[in-house]
Design goal:
The complex is a heterodimer of chains A (about 140) and B (about 425). Chain A has 3 helices and 12 strands, in the order ββββββββαβαβαββ. In chain A, the strands form 3 sheets. Chain A has an 8-stranded mixed sheet with strand order 1-12-11-3-7-9-10-2. A two-stranded parallel ribbon of chain A has the order 4-8. A two-stranded antiparallel ribbon of chain A has the order 5-6. In chain A, helix 1 runs parallel beside helix 2. In chain B, strand 13, helix 14 and strand 14 form a beta-alpha-beta unit. Chain B has about 425 residues and is an alpha/beta fold. In chain B, helix 7 packs across helix 14. Chain B has 3 domains: about 170 residues, no CATH class; about 100 residues, no CATH class; about 120 residues, Aconitase, domain 3. Chain B starts with 7 loop residues before the first helix and ends in an 8-residue tail after the last helix. Chain B is globular. Classes of the chains: A alpha/beta (about 140), B alpha/beta (about 425).
């Protein structure tokens, strides 16, 4: 079990399988809210689904439509269950608020390096506590 | 305001701002008197909300993140609508549902009565919404945000639909990030070692800067010419596309950077990243890596929305020529400048060649290109980046002259000048 401590962005608790992005995520033009997938052609996660996942990413990039597109995932039922954001910005902060999912930032260690896609992650955003159970068989 | 003393909508707006401020760990709000947001732009979710409960419902959910019924009051501070769906000049030209144009006109009437200035452009600073130096504002649209911060020295973060909506009813925004003196200095240095003195080159430098600097504040020095409004518009839009640049400085040119030392606030100047001929070529090749078919169906100019001078240059390039029968050319611009183009005769020249000037909109926002488009060409690094992902089409990026050549011949023959 790996434990990380951080700061509350949106309080609440959720758990789920991690989807870890090695690079920043674009909202508008980078995700398809109806499908709940990353759609940016040159992105490492292009084609991957985030619905129901704990989305772990270094930062938000691109258009100011970021928050609106993630809000649409909530309204369309394709949202992630939680967000872990290495470096907060107005796009990702507002995005987490209007997606209304538990979210944490400013962690004591780099979440994108320690958490791997497929790990099971418990996000106690109210207390800024993250527990990671590594997926079976991962190095 | 959150207790409801100033009405339910204002209370919801303040509630959102407090949740948002907490998410940022901001210690207070600051006063803003200029908001650029989006209310009238149709979207599938918004259409459903309007059917359920009118524009009041759509504003509550999308612009305030509020689940209860409210009535939208008059805007508390000057607020404008950014670019949106196609306007009436797109009817019969653009494959865009007529009912969305009708819906948008209905929205314009609703929000106009509540004090939203319907500028309908990604470049409000071109058509009358020009914040003064040091003014705190709440703007959306990444290309406008970076322009306002860097070129005008106004102060804004990259706001979203809900925070801009909440700011329009309260005149407040979290005092975080770019609003604070200590956060406005350069944090990254780019040494330009290849001449940058054309619209194409300013855009490519911006695309490079965003790629290497991410969300930092790049300071650009070296072999730079004297950029005009269109060049800086392209630079910032590209930097906000490949990265998250919201503020840059060009010592000796932009207002908060009289010198290199001032740009870094007296802190030690970091080791520079080099932008030389190899980096320049790499940017060009990246932006031209999204296609292999040379048959061009569609040429898109005016991203961000064209200036009057860009329209003049496009008209000069198209004067006396005729588009290839299989190719369309759209030039996007603020509707207020369409009027200028009409009166100056530019519209007539471009339309005689077979091109179209379209006010208000953006093919990427509206997810619309001419029917059957497979390959498009543009002089905008931002559109070359986004449109392939959004519409599943191939892209070519080059100069205005290369784009006009493609429109006239139907073939892409561009190369790096």
């Amino acid at each position: 079990m790996i434990t990380l401590h951080g700061r509350t962005v949106v309080p609440g608790y959720a758990e789920g399988e991690a989807l870890v992005s090695p690079e920043p995520i674009s909202g508008w033009g980078g995700i398809d809210p109806a499908a709940g997938r990353i759609i940016e052609p040159r992105h490492a996660l292009n084609g991957m689904a985030f619905t129901g996942k704990v989305l772990v990413f270094p930062s938000a990039k691109g258009s100011s439509g970021w928050s609106g597109f993630f809000q649409s995932t909530r309204l369309l039922g394709t949202a992630p269950v939680a967000m872990i954001i290495t470096r907060i910005s107005t796009k990702s902060a507002l995005g987490a608020v209007v997606t209304r999912v538990p979210a944490v930032t400013d962690l004591d260690r780099d979440p994108c390096a320690l958490i791997r896609t497929g790990d099971w992650v418990r996000v106690d955003a109210t207390h800024g506590l993250i527990e990671v159970k590594p997926a079976a068989g991962r190095s | 305001m959150r207790d409801g003393a100033e009405g339910a909508a204002t209370a919801a707006a303040m509630d959102l701002l407090i949740r948002y401020g907490d998410a940022l760990a901001a210690d207070r709000l600051c006063d803003v008197r200029n908001v650029a947001g989006t209310m009238t732009q149709p979207s599938p979710v918004k259409e459903r909300l309007v059917r359920e409960g009118g524009w009041d419902k759509a504003f509550a959910v999308i612009n305030l993140d509020c689940d209860t019924d409210i009535e939208v009051p008059a805007m508390r501070v000057p607020t404008c609508q950014l670019q949106h769906g196609f306007g009436p000049d797109g009817r019969g030209i653009v494959p865009y549902p007529e009912q969305r144009i009708d819906l948008q006109q209905d929205a314009e009437a609703f929000y106009g009565r509540r004090g939203v200035n319907i500028l309908a452009t990604c470049t409000p600073y071109q058509v009358g919404s020009i914040p003064v130096r040091g003014e705190h504002i709440a703007w959306m649209e990444s290309s406008a945000v970076v322009y306002a911060n860097s070129v005008l020295a106004a102060r804004t973060n990259c706001e979203g639909t809900a925070s801009a909506g909440a700011a329009s009813l309260t005149g407040k925004i979290p005092c975080w990030g770019n609003h604070r003196d200590e956060n406005r200095f350069g944090t990254y240095l780019i040494d330009v070692q290849t001449p940058v003195d054309s619209f194409l080159d300013w855009g490519m430098l911006g695309y490079f800067a965003g790629g290497v600097a991410g969300e930092e504040h790049p300071v650009l020095t070296g072999a730079l010419g004297r950029p005009d409004l269109a060049d800086l518009k392209h630079l910032g839009a590209a930097a906000a596309t490949s990265g998250g640049v919201e503020l840059y400085h060009i010592p000796g040119l932009t207002p908060e950077a009289p010198t290199l030392e001032a740009a870094f606030g007296g802190a030690k100047t970091p080791e520079p990243a080099c932008y030389g001929p190899a980096e320049r070529r790499a940017v060009y090749e990246t932006l031209n890596s999204q296609g292999d078919r040379a048959d061009v169906d569609f040429v898109l100019l005016g991203c961000p929305h064209a200036s009057a001078d860009q329209v003049r240059r496009a008209a000069a390039a198209l004067d006396g020529r005729r588009l290839s029968p299989g190719t369309e050319l759209w030039l996007m611009l603020p509707r207020a400048l369409k009027d200028v183009a009409d009166r100056s005769g530019y519209t007539d020249v471009i339309e005689r060649a077979g091109g179209r000037l379209l006010g208000d909109s953006c093919p990427a926002m509206s997810r619309v290109a001419p029917a059957g488009t497979r390959v498009f060409a543009t002089d905008s690094a931002k559109q070359a980046h986004y449109l392939p992902a959004i519409l599943g089409i191939e892209a070519w990026f080059g100069t205005l002259e290369d784009c006009v050549d493609a429109a006239v011949t139907g073939r892409w023959r561009g190369s790096l000048p």
